[in-house]
Each structure stands twice: as structure tokens, then as C-alpha cells.
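Model: You mentioned two targets. I'll fold them one after the other.
Researcher: Yes, keep them separate.
Model: Target one:
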Amino acid sequence: MNYKELLKKILVPNKKGINRKLLNRILYNKEKYINIFNFLLYEVYTDSSSLEETLKRLVLNIDKKPLCPICNKPVNFIGKQSKMFSKYCSYSCRAKDPKNYSKWIDGQKKYNEKEYGVTYVWQREDVKEKRKEKLIEKYGTTNLYNVPEIKEKINKTVQSKHNEIISNRNKTLKEKYGIENVGGLLRLPEIQEKINNTKKKNHTFNSSKVEEKSYQLLCSRFNNNVKYQYKSNIYPFVCDFYIPVIDAYIECNYHWTHGGHLFNENSKEDKEKLEFWKSKNSKYYDNAIHTWTIRDVNKHNIALENKLNYFVFYSYDELKEWVNNLDLTIWYDDNKIKDEFDYYLTHNGNLNNVYPNSYIIRYFQQNVLYKTEKELWRNEKIKNKLIENRIKYIKPFEELTDIDYINGFKRSMIYYGYSYFNPLWFKWFIEKYNIKKCYDPFGGWGHRLLGGMSSLDLYIYNDLSKSTYENVNKIISFFNIDNVVTYNEDAGNFIPGEEFDSMFTCPPYYNVEKYECGEFENIEEYNKLIDKIFDIFYSTDSCKIFGIIIREDLLKDEYKEKCTENHIINNRKSHHILKEKKNNEYLYIFMK
């Protein structure tokens, strides 16, 4: 008979799923049915413990034998209709299961409480007395730790276990981090970062009163824009303070362990101090030596390598002096700069448009625009007067910013400063007269550069001030403006090599404003310069139109008579030479 057909007859549908009579014939006639027997016992399920298990697993479609939840070994076959396999492989694994253990413990506790009124057996008084008697009888004491051989054995066991734990821990640290001990682990940047993040989260940084005082001082100067315990990719240490608006890293090394200054290995005094610290031969001084000679030096070197704006102070007075001597500054503001740039790109030209002072120009040209204001700020008397004025008229001291102070010089009548030019005035000129290439002999701060960047094929910039010229090139580089050429020449004696179809400018307003290139000796010298600019216009064949924005009293009448058209600029009254006379600013347009 084919063994497959025989299997079908063995595995018949009945209560147990097996034809017992036919199975017994196979069991008692192994020789006759040896192939079937071997197939069932050794080939169908290699993990079966018996033929019966194999048959029943075939009936019930149990391909994989269950495993013990404790040791992960195969469990025992029971074969009952209600329970084919045991849950555990052994009684020991059953006892190890926390669920069973807790049930057993709970049962024992209930029993002890019911029978003896205690939770544990060793709490019973008779058990305690019996234990004491046995200990005294065997060792002569109730405290086993007083027995020398037992004490020695306990200590050896504890020490052996401790050494094993330390050895395994150090082995893991070496494999994972390449360090020898836990001390090295605490110096790892990623571990330090986790520790510091946790301290920040829980507000558990140990900061002294003088550090808190330093933080408050910086916040008052930088309008609360100060980060405490800061770390970055270019400075992989936890820095005491970071000030985003000036991109400055500040370390306050007030504690004596920083040595009072940066360690110099060539200094005789530093060598003597180092030897003195070493002679103390204590862990505290060893940590101080590491801080002064290694850690602080590494910080300094990395700051130099990455060209950081890095400051280290060894006393609160040093920090205070630095803060008080800081110049007024227009801080970089990404949102303001991008918004203004987009504004000039998308808005049409307009002579009547009123737009606030260009933040772009104020930021990039601040070393020229606010040179006088910065100098005045260093005068304590003027500085205090300005602060009092701003507190009185605009906002509380803690809310004042450097821009408030800079604007305050003009508004509090301490110093007038420079007037500004609206870029959209120049854009109006370009759009109205379809200008393609324009030469600007007095390019100035860069306002017209911004007005012409989206409308001109070529803007030719020139200015005599080297600092102003360099700052304009920074603006061009920052915004990737590609339709500009720049010159740093005397406008009265220079004509650019590029061809241009128009000229447009806003010349200096005589000596009303103080320029880097100095003052004019008299009004005649100023007029000669204006004459030369007009000569360039009239002598250049390709140039057909000239627009000049100037105060009405600074343009000679002979030019006003030649003017094709003029427009008053925003009805704005200009500052003036003679206080009793107020003069308007005009855009005068000349055409050939």
C-alpha cells in the first residue's frame, strides 16, 4: 500500500482525528511499515518527540512547536484534546516566571498573615529565636560578619563582583567610545551635551551670583537677545554666553582655576604658578591645572582657527567695561534685509513714496553713516543725556535698542546726521524714460544701486569715499547683483569707459553734512564740481538725459533755466545753511 494513502486512512475525521486501530497496526508492525514510520517520526516534524505528536500536529496543522517563554526552549507534548503542549519546558522555568512567582509570594503572604499575623516567616518571633540559638551554637555569635572566615569570604565575594562590574564597564567604554574610564566619558562632547541639555531642561545649572549679574548686564545691553550655556558646531564647548546679534562667544572665567589669564607656557610666572599647583598634589588642583593649561587653551585655539568673534573675561569689571565701551551697532536682521530687498524688486518707482530709512544701507554702511554718532556715544555726558531723552519720550530702558539710540541723536537735536535717498525715486526715473545704462558720479551709500538693480541693463557707480565704495561692493556681493560696475574716483575728473545713455545722481549738499572726503573750502569750489558734472553730461554723445536731486539753493540759476522739467521731492524740507531759510529738494531733469 502507498504510504500516502495509508496516511489518509490514519488521519480520518473523528473526535480525535486519528484511526487508532490502523495506527496500532503501524506501531506493532514497524518492520512492515518501516518507511511510513520513519517518515512520520523523522521527516515530517524534526522537533517531534513521538509519532503521536507528529500525527496530532498534522491533524491540527501545528507547524511550529511552541517555545518556553522563559528559556526559549521547546515545551513538552501532552497530547490532550484540551491541551496539546505544556506552557513551560520545566518546573524551574515555571517558578522563574515573575507572574507565577508573584502569585506564589502573594499566596505565602496571605497564609502567613492568616496563620501567624506576619507577612514573612522570618518575622515570626519563634523563628527569630530559633535562628539566634542556631547561630550561637554554631559560631558563638548572632552577627555572622563578626566571624573572621565568613567576613573574609563576604569581602572577597563583594570585591570580586565589584571588580567584574568595573572590568566589564571599562571594556564597554573602550569598545564604544575608545576611553579607559568614566572620567573620560564625562569629557565626551555628546555626553556633555546630554548633561547640559538635562540641566537646561530642569533649570539646575550651578551659576554663581556674579554669573547671574553678568547675564543681566548683557541682557540689558542686547535687549535680552543673549543665549546662556550655548554650544555650536564651530565652538564645541559649552560657552557661558552667546550673543546672536553680533555673533559673539563670551566666556566668563572668573574662578581662580582659570589662572586669571590665558596660560602661556613660555611665561616664567605661569610656570611657577603651575609648579605650585602641582605641589598641592590634590584632585582639586589637578582639575584646575587641566582647566587652565589644556581646556582653556584648546577653546582659545579653536576660536582662532574658526575665526570666531570670541571674548574671554576674568572679572565682572572687565565684562562691564567691555559692554560700556561697545559702539552703537545696527545688528544684522535677516528678515528685515530680505523683506526690503523684495520690496525694491516688486514695487514700481514713485516720487511721492515714503519708505523708512533703508535697513540694508544702514547695516552695510554703518561704519560711515554713524561714525560721528559712535564717537559721541563714547562721551558719557552725551550718552547719558541721550538715554534719558529716549526713556522719557519712547520706551523703558530695558526695551531700548541701538537703533533707538542712533535715531535719537537726530530727534533729540544732539546731532542731525545724514539725509537719506529713496531708491524708488531712481526707479521712477528709469521706468518713465526707459533708461538702460546709467552713470552715477556720486553713487553714495547705495540707495540708487537698490533702485536700479531690477530695471537697468547697467548701473555705473562711482564715489570718492573709499569706505563707502567698499561697503557698496559688499552689498553687491551679498545680493549677487550682476548689472553693476563700481569706481572709486574723483567725479570731477573721471568719465567711465562704459557707454551710458543717461546720468542720475544726488551730489553732496555742500558742507551741510560731514563727508569722509572732507569739506569744500567755499561755495565756489562746490559750484565748480557741479559744473564739471554737467560738462560730462553735455560732452558725452551717448548720454541723452540727466536727472539730479539737489537742494534748490545749491543749483545755479543758469542750470535751472535749462531744466526740461522738475519735481519737488515729497514736499520735504531740507536742513539748510541759513537757519532762517528753508529750502526744498527737487529732481531736476535735463534732456538734449
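Model: Target two:
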Amino acid sequence: MASIALVVLLCQIASPARAQWGQPISGDLSAAIRVDEVDSSARALLERVKAHVAEKQWDEAVETLREVMERQRSKLIRLDDSRYIPIREYCQMRLAELPPAGRALYRSRVDPLARRWYEEGIAERDTALLRRVVDQLFLSSWTDKALLALGEIALEEGDYPQARWCWERISPELRTPDGRPLWLNLRAASEMRVALEPAAQAKGVIPSPAQWLAYPDTQLNLADIRARLVLASILEGSLARARIELDDLNRRHPSARGKIGGHEGPYAELLAGMLITAEQRPAPIAPTDWPTFGGSFERTMSAAPDPGLRTAWNPPLDVPLNGGGPFRTDISIIRDTFGLPETRPAEDQRSEVGLLCFHPIVVGNLVLFNSIDKIYAFDLPTGKPAWPLPPGTKDRDPGEIYSGLTGRENLGVRNDSGNQFHTLGVPRFTMTVAGRRLYARLGSPITERQLTSGLSTGNSYLVCLDLAAEGRLVWRIPQTQAEDDRWAFEGSPVCDGNNIYVAMRYNDVQPQEHVACYDAQTGMIRWRRLVCAAESPARGQADAITNNLLTLAHDTLYLNTNLGAVAAISTADGQIRWLSTYPRAKRPSGASDRGDNFYRDLNPCIYYRGSLLVAPTDSADSETILSLDSSTGQLLWASNVPRDVVHLLGVGGGNLLASGQRLWWLNVDGGKVVHRWPDQTTEHGYGRGALVGDEVFFPTRTEIHVFRQALGRSAADTAGGSDPTRVEVREPIQLATRNLPLSGGNLVVAGGYLLIATPTKLIALGPHAAPVHPNEHEVTQER
């Protein structure tokens, strides 16, 4: 297909001088992970509680637990081998385990305050007051009612996982004893044709030791709660889950009646009708913008279906950026010091073409991307600069709307070998747009320095530009606003309208991972929270570049630290809601593992309907992909079958789509590998693909292959007699043609266009006819 509209030279940036490297590194990464844990005095008090309970001294036990909650507040405590939770939640678990006499004593002291908060919250529809009941006084007599009300409000606001989580905590019977979603066990029991044991041996009894916090003795009707859980699944679109939950409701409460979804009658009949309606409902209209990495802050989005890509835009526009070539890395460091493969999955760092560092975004008619210290904006339909240069402007590239530094020496890198980085990790350029404001991380990409060269990371900073005012600078946050020059911003922020949130690294012997919150309007800091500290894969032996991005779902941030932990953080105050660890990796040196997982250097969590999908860089099983419960951090499944995955593209058709050398389909509910393409790696992936409608686009160097997201025989397949095992739905989009030899790369589909970000160009394929241009044969080719 001879289709090209816009070609932009993307990267010509200076690089750091080569350091003196030590001997090859081998052995395991340290399993030690430091978090903000409770101190020894709190642990002593908790031991004292056990003694009080054994002696049936309920007054002393209750007051000691309240003292620990008050003293330690935001500290964490280890719950089991892999999870940490806030000390307040842990103490509430211990209160929930008290016998009725102990709980009654506690309630006599907190119920008056809980009742006032609850009644004011209901009267004023104030979710903050209702959450205060749940967070601070979970064992009060009013908490189950507050949970019911919070779930109703969340359902009305379309936050179905939050509604479900509120309702599930009303009783320990609504999840498994270890805190896993009950429907997964129900499905497994159905598949094995065995009866499922009740979640608790007796109503209102939490298994000991508790693995999650549930209200122990509600008097609310559980048939009503289970009906609401089915409704949440239907409205969310989780129809397989809804069927299982509806079967369970009918088995437990066959005659239950009530009001649900605005109708009153038998729950079984009403919900079955809603389920049929939902199955016939057309798919929602996909958005046309692509405002951040992954398309959304949940990091999974299917773009609107492509327009066919029949014709071309205008001929290429050259943008003369500064520098001498595309990004590359020093292969000798990768090979000799770290024992990693010399070729990155879905890239080729040996090639003179360079690495795939750029991830453009699209908002309205604007296509935007950035380099280390510049931001560019072009008109999507025409490929021309979005706005004319101001009169008298000098030394500015076409399309450039922001330049942050006047001298490359301020980047914290040195130019002695073109753009070849002597680092573990490479720059990855992402940005975010929210409400016509653009947020970007610019400056030095270095986030860790080798210990022999000092701990200063150089200059990194955040900027906010007003796209309604042609990219006018609103504010800039330098890293030096933090206390010293060891801080580095790691990637572009996420935004909830009022605030932006960004991952930060503090460079130390054990690098520290933090999350910071800034006011979106002014750039003033609101809070910053330590997540964890651990030995990094660079181990202080080399400079390192990390690119951790946050995931945002409603009022919770999720962070894959790539330091042995995944965490959920409250947007309100930075409180860590849970932190889950995983076994850390062996170094590939001297081992049989290829070490492809160490190239997962842009790997935020994917949030999908209450589950979290993570592909850590440093997991012990190098191919591991994890699924965690987003409410508790509990492991749902782990898959170590895919051996080359570096990109989690998103969830569609019931599958997690992941790619590297191959494209992989994994069932999102169980982690089973459904399919992979190709079976033999005769044709390698090249770049990050994209979900488009109900399809997935998978780029190679010369073609873009298009597959179904959902596998299996469809009604159309059956009618047409097509092969149900064929997942490729059309002929590949040919990129290497006679007149326009193009290349694969990182894909974005938005506004009716397919953008391909190669190491040196931004290529756009679109629906509009291109005029014949006399210089068309001069299109810049890949080197």
C-alpha cells in the first residue's frame, strides 16, 4: 500500500560518556525490599494484644489496638509471605476476630461517632463521611450500612469494581477465605462438577488468620447483596461472571425478591432479563483520541476501528532536530556486564536505525510527541505544524511548541559517541493530555547513577502546556524543587482533573521508588509517598534509565516498581492500600534464561475490571505475567509460558494481548495461553501494537498483521464456512512498497489515522487522498 502522510525525524540527542565497567554480574537480585513498616514498639503492642485476647481481657485488647492505629497511622505491616497492608486495616482485622463480647465493647465506644458520620453522610450524600466510617471505624454497628450506600453511589457513577468491593466486604461469605473473588472458585467448581464449600464454616465467622477485612456479623439480607453483585457484573460487561453469580444466587436464594435496576420482583427473573438485554447490546463507541500511553490511564483501550487506510496524506515534512542520529545503546555493556541478549525483543539495538523510543499521542486534530527536551505538535489531517511560529522566532524547528534547555550539557549526559547510551535501559518518550492541558516529563533520562560517579541524576522536570493557547507554558516543576539532585521524575504523569500523579526515583545505594502528587493548575506539590526501596538490576554498576508509569483507576493509583513490588496508592493522601511482592530474578549471566524480561522498560500495570495485569522486569521466572486482585493485591494467577513478552497491549475479547517477538493471547480470567502467532519466530514483531475495535494490530518490519482479539468460531464464521482457527482477519497491511519503502514501529490508531513511530520518523496512514507531489520519490528511507 502506497500510503504516507507525515514523516518526522524523531531523535537526534546527545549521550553520556562511557564509564569504567566492573566484572560481569551474576547471582540473584537481593530479595530484601524496604517499605515504610511499623516499628518494634508497635509489634510489641500487637504481641500484647494476643495475650489480652488469650486472657479474655477485651478492654485492654481493644484499647491497645486503638493505640497502635493512632500511633502508626500510615505505616505498613506484612500480612503474609507476599503482601503488606496498612496497620489500621490489620488492627481492624484483629478487632473483627474478637468474639461478640469484645466487638460489643469496641462498638460501645465508637458507635456514637460512627452513627453521626453515617447519618450526615446519607443526608448530604457525602461519600467522604461514609468512607470515614469504613476506613476509621470498620467494626462499628454502622459500617455495613455505609458499605451498602457507598456501593450504590459507585454503581450510579459507573465505578462497578468499586461498587462490588464495597458490597463484598459486607460479609466474609461474599469472597473466599483468602480474599479471592468468589466467582473464580464457583467457576472452577462448576468446571470440575464438584460442590463448593461455603466461604466460612459458620455465618459471621472469619477464618483465622484473616487474609482480608470483611464485616463479621452483618444483619443485612445477603440475597439483596448478591443480587447487586450480579447487577454490577452485568453493567460492567462481565457477562460470564454475571452468569456464574446469577446461578449462585438462584442456588442460595431461589425465591428471593426485591427491587433491582429500577424494577421489583423475583431477582432471578429480573436479572436474567437484564443479562439477555446486555448480551444483545452493541459495543460502546470507541474514543477517537489517544491522549496517553496505552490510550487511557487504565493503560488498556481499543481505538475506533480504522478507516481502511486506502489512500495517502501529503508528502513528508522534514524537521531538522539537533544532534547526530537515533538512539542506540552500548551492546558491550548489555552483554559483558549484565549478560543480557544483544537483541531486544520487538526491536533491534544492533541496527543503525536505532531503538523505538517514541510513543505519540493524538487529541482532536493534534498529533504530539516529545524528545528529551522538546515538544512538537502537528495537524493530524494535513501533517503541517499545528500553529505558525511567532514572528521573529529563530532557531526553532517546524512544529516545535516547547524547548526546555538551551544547552545539551544541562541534560546530565555527555556527547562523545553520537546518541549511543552507555546505560542499562533507554529513553522512552510519553506524554499525557487532560482537559486541553499537556503534561510531559523532559530533561535528562538518567534516573540512577553508578555509585562510582556520584548519585546526582542530572536535570529532569515536568511541564504543563496549554493546548488551547497554542502550547503556552503554564508551569514547570524542576526536580530541584525536591530537596536534592538525587531525585528524578520517571515518566509522564496521570491526571484526575484536579491533580497530577507521577512516579519518582530517589537515587541511593538501594534506589527508592516514590509517588508524588502535584496540583494540576499550579504545579504545587500536595504529597509524596515512599513505595519501596530495593536493589535495582543496574546494582550501581552502570547508569540506568527507568521509565515507570502510573496507572489510574478512579481514586487509586497502581505502580509496578520493577523493584520487587506492585502497589496500590490512594489518590487522596498517598496512603498505600496494599503492596504485593514477588520473587526476584536471577541475573541472566551464567544462567540459561535469555533475560528478555529485563527489556520490559515501559511496563505499567493494566487495570481491567477489578484485576491488575503486570509484567515485571525483575520477576524470578523471567517470563512471568501476574494477575492481581486490584482491591487486595492477592495473586489471581501467574503465567510463565510466554518467553518473549515486553509489551502488554491491553485486554479485549476476554484475552490479555501481549507481544514481543510473537503476539500472545492469554485468557484474562485464568492466564491460560489461548494462542500465539507465529508458532515459529520466522517473522519477528517490531514495535508496540495496538487494539483497534475488536481487532489487534501487530507490527513487523515490513507489515502490520491484523487479528481477532477474541478467538473461536463466530456466527459470521459459521455462516461463511471460514476456518475458526484462523485469527488473522485480513491480508497484512504492506509497508514496504515500490514507491514508499516504510517500516514498522510503535503504533497508535486515533482520529481515523494509523500512526507508526519508527526510530527516525513518524509515519501516518490515513483516509484522505494525497495530491501528487513532484518530490515524492525523495521520501526519507530507513537506514
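Researcher: Noted. Anything on target two?
Model: The mean pLDDT is 83.
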